[in-house]
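Consider this pair:
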Amino acid sequence: MRSNGGVPKDQRILLAAEEVFSKSGYEKSTLDKIIALAAVGKGTVYKYFGSKEGLFYKLVNDKNIAFVERLKHAIAAHDNLRDKLLAYFTEMIKFYRTYPVLWQIICFEMVGFRHGCIVNINNGAEEIVPLYNNVITEETKKRVLRYHRILMSEYSLIHNLLKENVDKGVLKKDNVDFSAISLFFGVVMCVFNPIEYTRRQTNEEMASNIIDWFLHGSLVRAEISDK
């Protein structure tokens, strides 16, 4: 990225941050690299974003807000379940392929295991659960939760869609939480760790194959045994 004096400083910083984080991940990215690329002073970064983490959060949260709106529109634009799923996952795969490193940072660096905890949802309430009898600071809880909420804003749309169709009798009565989380994060991992087969596919082709598997399964012939 070439710095552009005509672009507002906060936007120059965000553009530089996207380039640096996308190349280096979160831990190896430094404010010095971002500052040099944006051609601003360190004080300007602190003025607008407060810290490296504040800058990263602003970057990904802004992208996520627009992304979630596109997901909502994709679902609303269709009438039947398969078309809704196809539109949702085509948009999702496109987005995750566009920003793979940024969203891997969210999944693997900012949420969960790296901080020695996971987030459980009990009756709609978020609960931080330590993994090793360790003490989780309030600052860590705050950080983990706000990135968790980014992912949940995407995930909740597919969860609600599946629940709605279970309630309608379109899908069999099953554990919606398990189905939704398996489907959503299964697609995420397919994008993050592509095999040659999926790497060659368009966004829509990949989404269509996943949905056909989810709706119709892979079983060709049932094996029946009395043993």
Q: What stands out?
A: The chain has a mean pLDDT of 92. Residues 94 and 203 are 6 Å apart (CA to CA). The first strand starts at residue 117 and ends at 122.
